[in-house]
Write a structure and sequence with these properties.
The complex is a heterodimer.
Chain A (H helix, E strand, L loop, with lengths): L2 H6 L2 E11 L5 E11 L3 E5 L6 H9 L6 E6 L12 E4 L11 H11 L4 H14 L15 H13 L5 E5 L7 H18 L2 E6 L2 H7 L2 E5 L6 E6 L14 H14 L10
Parallel strand pairs in A: 3-7, 3-8, 5-6, 6-7
Antiparallel strand pairs in A: 1-2, 1-4, 8-9
Chain B lengths: L5 H41 L10 H10 L1 H35 L1 H16 L2 H11 L2 H25 L4 H9 L4 H39 L8 H10 L3 H30 L12
Helix pairs in contact in B: 2-10, 3-4, 3-6, 3-8, 3-9, 5-6, 5-8, 6-8, 8-9, 8-10, 9-10
Classes of the chains: A alpha/beta, B mainly alpha.
Chain lengths: ~260, ~280
């Protein structure tokens, strides 16, 4: 399938027979096939070291696949500084030597966007993440949740079509994580971005995504796919619904074979 | 009094304690200095030791005041040499590290020679340099040779200590080499570079002094180390001590200035410059 055909099929991302073998000889991924429709929110769920982060890095273009093809739709017409992909790491990955505002400015600066134009976009991204009053703060002055918000604002500032998130909330406390989950859902509803969310939390994947793709241990493959069909927009009460519990159970069962030595229920 | 009252009162007691500890840490070395100087003075006076053998601290101080016109001139000369050597070391060390960072081949080709230059004692190189270079140049080159290596190795370490994910982010957004260097590598390396410069400051002074001593009586210079050598030949021991005192003071001031600069530059973000409480 060519890039245009993929675009016409409404796909944001498509992977065909993608494998990744690292220089050390470790087969991290694949072969893996994956299709993500535009505007879809999917989760890649699997045990640590199952290659889900590797898959994300391949989609972002940070690493090249050993074999297979990775296609990411790139709209032709784009204003200066726009970038098709935003990436959020597990750590906030902020530059400690400068303010939140300058951290968010980074992608625009690298694309040589004029200061006046980028200022407006930075303000918007900071406002979206509720960081307006922390613009001048340095990363070390922020809490873990706030740092992650800054990291998200940086990913959003280029108005990407696709948001790649690599266990972004794994290091946060539960209360902060729930709030960020809800904020992310609201963001996704309003901005209609394609989100590929890597996580090892069954609960997080069910709460957030339309589809959960369960991966096997190394080399990672997609073992099963579970669609989460529930009333949208989701709200906090979904967490306590019987639907939610049923989906969590289903996803857990799908995940069980990925943890050898532990029996599934 | 309940148990709950205990922690606050304990904390209140701890505060003056730590202030007292800080005061003691300042007072103890001062006391040692005072006792040492007093003992020295007494030994010289009681035993009537002549100043050309061991001058009393008072004699050294008197010489410092009386010879100030000569000594201050020498101090200025040595400081200027040190500054030139330091600037050369800073620019040379950082520039070389940047070149090495951009080209592995260059690093492989040149790094061994940087090490050789570093491990060969500068006191042994100085006489050769004095043959081929004018004394003024030779002295600066010596200061540079001793000073540049810590800057080079620290900067290299810093440039290689960039956060892997931040580097990934830069490549994701299509950063050019120059952008990566300017916006990512150099700021990441800054704490390391400042550490290197702090070492280089003191070493530059040593390099300058070594070269002046090597130039010795043949030299036309008038730096502090030259004064020490000259005063030695003339058995003007008090002046030797006075010049030595000035050299020490210069070293302390250089270190203090560089440490202060480092603190001011890094205080908003780097762990090394943050207080214990934050």
């Amino acid at each position: 399938m060519t890039e245009r055909e993929a675009d016409e099929a409404g796909l944001a991302v498509s992977l065909r027979g993608v494998t990744k073998v690292y220089d050390s000889g470790v087969a991290a991924l694949g072969p893996m096939d994956l299709e993500v429709r535009k505007g879809e929110f999917i989760s890649l769920l699997g045990p640590s070291g199952c290659g889900k982060s590797t898959a994300l890095r391949l989609i972002a273009g940070l690493n090249a696949p050993t074999s297979g093809t990775v296609r990411v739709s790139r709209p032709a017409a784009r204003t200066g500084g726009a970038h098709p992909v935003g990436f959020v790491f597990q750590e906030p990955t902020l530059m400690p030597w400068t303010s939140v505002r300058e951290n968010v400015r980074l992608p625009l600066k690298l694309a040589h966007v004029a200061g006046s134009e980028s200022d407006a976009r930075i303000d918007q991204a900071l406002a979206q993440m509720g960081l307006g009053e922390f613009a001048g703060a340095y990363p070390r002055e922020l809490s873990g949740g706030m740092k992650m918000r800054a990291s998200l604002a940086r990913a959003l500032v280029t108005d990407p079509d696709i948001l790649l998130m690599d266990e972004p909330f794994a290091a946060l406390d539960e209360i902060t994580r729930f709030r960020l989950n809800n904020d992310l859902l609201a963001l996704w509803r309003n901005l209609r971005k394609t989100v590929i969310f890597v996580t090892h939390s069954v609960f997080e994947s069910v709460y957030l995504s339309q589809r959960v793709l369960v991966m096997t241990s190394r080399p990672g493959r997609i073992a099963s796919e579970i669609a989460i069909a529930t009333a949208e927009p989701r709200a906090e009460d979904f967490r306590t619904s019987s639907d939610y519990a049923a989906y969590c159970r289903k996803v857990s069962n799908a995940l069980a074979p990925s943890y050898p030595g532990q029996s599934g229920s | 009094m309940t148990l709950l009252d205990t922690p606050p009162s304990a904390a209140a007691q701890a505060a003056p304690d730590s202030r007292a500890v800080r005061l003691v840490r300042v007072l103890l070395p001062v006391a040692v200095l005072a006792i040492g100087v007093a003992a020295w003075e007494l030994v010289v006076r009681i035993n009537h030791i002549p100043p050309y053998v061991l001058p009393a601290p008072s004699a050294v101080f008197t010489t410092l005041v009386l010879d100030w016109p000569v000594l201050s001139q020498s101090l200025l000369t040595t400081l200027l040499t040190t500054l030139e050597g330091f600037i050369a070391a800073a620019i040379g060390g950082i520039a070389l590290a940047l070149l090495f960072n951009q080209s592995k081949w260059l690093e492989y080709s040149l790094f061994p020679y940087a090490v050789i230059l570093q491990v060969t004692p500068v006191i042994a190189i100085a006489p050769l340099l004095l043959i081929y270079l004018s004394q003024q140049t030779a002295v600066v080159v010596c200061a540079w040779i001793v000073g540049f290596f810590p800057v080079l190795s620290n900067t290299t370490l810093g440039l290689n200590s960039v956060d892997r994910n931040l580097a990934g982010l830069f490549s994701l957004y299509g950063a050019s080499r120059l952008q990566t260097l300017r916006l990512l590598k150099l700021p990441s390396a800054l704490p390391f570079i400042l550490g290197g410069l702090r070492i280089a400051g003191g070493l530059s002074l040593i390099g300058a002094v070594v070269a002046e001593i090597a130039a010795g009586s043949a030299g036309a210079g008038s730096g502090l180390a030259y004064r020490i050598a000259e005063s030695g030949y003339r058995l003007n021991i008090p002046r030797m001590f006075a010049a030595l005192l000035l050299l020490s003071a210069a070293g302390i001031v250089i270190y203090g200035l560089l440490a202060l600069t480092s603190h001011l530059v890094l205080r908003r973000w780097h762990e090394s410059a943050l207080g214990k409480e934050s």
